[in-house]
Amino acid sequence: MGFYLLQERSANKEIRNYKLLSLLKYNVLIHCQTISTDGLQTLDPMDFKVSYDKLVIASGAEASTFGIKGVKEHAIFLREVHHAQEIRRKLLLNLMLSDVPGVSDDEKRRLLHCVVVGGGPTGVEFSGELSDFIMKDVHKRYSHVKDYIHVTLIEANDILSSFDDRLRVYATKQLTKSGVRLVRGTVKDVQPKKLVLSDGTDVPYGLLVWSTGVGPSSFIRDMDLPKAPGGRIGVDDWLRVPSAPDVFAIGDCSGYLESTGKPTLPALAQVAEREGKYLAALLNNLGKAGGGHANGGGDMELGEAFVYKHLGSMATVGSYKALVDLRQSKEAKGVSIAGFASWFIWRSAYLTRVVSWRNRFYVAINWLTTFVFGRDISRI
Predict the structure, then answer these.
(1) Separation between Cα atoms, residue 53 and residue 339, nearest integer Å
(2) Would you say 128 and 319 are in contact if contact means Cβ atoms under 8 Å apart?
(3) Model pLDDT, residue 21
(4) N or C: which end of the chain has fewer CB within 10 A?
């Protein structure tokens, strides 16, 4: 049984993108194109075709900019490894520039002003950890920045809107205590050195991190497939794309068709993980029943439909504090706790999601050395 997973791959020195150009729905054939670059020269793209028996589209999503001018040019997202590397490089550069003789106080404040847009779990976690890093590590190494460097979190509504109200209040107090300035507002325009809010307020920045959720990528939008509400690839109860036999879609790139009567699932790792496990079992069962070949399982019984059960949400707010909300929905009742115990639960749950015991060991050792000796600021 031929099985292909479409995704973009990247490495430090070489980037290879496998771009799906067209999907020949009834010929079980995809037309692809390679784009390779090693940082020195760009190779000419090479077209090729791949036949398949079953095709799974799991290409994820991209950060939502809501069409705001300047976001893609000046903001850094929190999606890929290279985004983390760019944040590290930008923060270190600004710390060095702020120490150059002759730099005015206003310019120092701009260079060292870290702005995070988006008050969801990702934006809150990043703001809390960044402020924690600044308070505990940066102040020791760069004593001259103590009165200039700070973090601002901008959110149009309430932060952590999907969490229990009590947890949101706790998160607000904890972030404020950690030195994060919370601003309620909507970004209207992003310029190289400042962003403009809808009320006309200018917010100068040196580092701008954008974390306002995700939406369909151009790769998904351009595909000639039925779409779910919001522009994702539409799937049925078994994660199939109805108009394309033997084609499935999972993760952030897919959503239920309106005809299923089911709401679009949130763009969370736990959703994609369980969809992947479900689909793997489904394809294995198809293969065992003789329906693994192209056009071979159209009339076969697929078994139980995919059902998603939310396990809860967690978020850290810095200073060894976190939130754990184990309710299945915002309206449901359940356990919700905050504080150090939640932080320990959050870390433990995170460690269980690391793929191998080797990596779990490395991550645990890194956490331990950071806890004892602090972060190695020479490797920001």
Answers:
(1) 50
(2) yes
(3) 46
(4) N
> Are 248 and 56 in contact, with CB atoms under 8 Å apart?
yes
Fold classification of 18-62+215-289 is: FAD/NAD(P)-binding domain (3.50.50)
Bridge partners of residue 215, in order along the sequence: 62
Beta bridge partners of 248: 56, 240
What residue type is assigned to position 87 of the chain?
A: I
Distance, in Å, from the CA atom of 3 to the CA atom of 5, rounded to the nearest integer, reads 7
Question: What pLDDT, in 10s, does the model give residues 249-303?
Answer: 999 999 999 999 999 899 998 999 999 999 999 999 999 988 888 888 777 888 8
What residue has token string 């000419």?
Answer: 44
Query: How far apart are the C-alpha atoms of 178 and 152, rounded to whole Å?
Result: 11
Both tokens assigned to 71: 């976001």
Indicate the pairing of strand 233-235 with strand 254-256: parallel
pLDDT < 50 positions in the chain: 1-19, 21-22, 24-26, 40, 380
- Helix, strand or coil, per DSSP, at residue 28: coil
DSSP for 128-187, please give it: HHHHHHIIIIIHHH-GGGTTT-EEEEEESS-TTTTS-HHHHHHHHHHHHHTTEEEEE--E
Rounded CA separation 334/320 (Å):
23
> What is the pTM assigned to this prediction?
0.85
What are the extents of the domains in the chain?
A: 18-62+215-289, 76-214+312-373
178 vs 147: CA distance, rounded Å: 15
Are 18-62+215-289 and 76-214+312-373 in the same CATH fold? yes
Residues 199, 187: Cα–Cα separation, whole Å? 9
Q: What does each C-alpha distance from 76 to 20, 65, 86, 235, 338 come to in angstroms?
A: 26, 11, 7, 31, 29
What is the model's pLDDT at position 37?
A: 52
The CATH code of the domain at 76-214+312-373 is 3.50.50.100
Residues found in the chain:
380
CA atoms within 13 A of residue 104's CA, in its CB half-sphere: 3
268 close to 311: Cβ distance less than 8 angstroms: no
- 124 three-state secondary structure: helix
pLDDT the model gives residue 177: 93
What are the residues facing 184 on neighbouring strands?
Answer: 155
C-alpha R_g of the chain = 23
User: pLDDT tens-digit profile of 157-176?
Assistant: 999 998 989 999 999 999 99
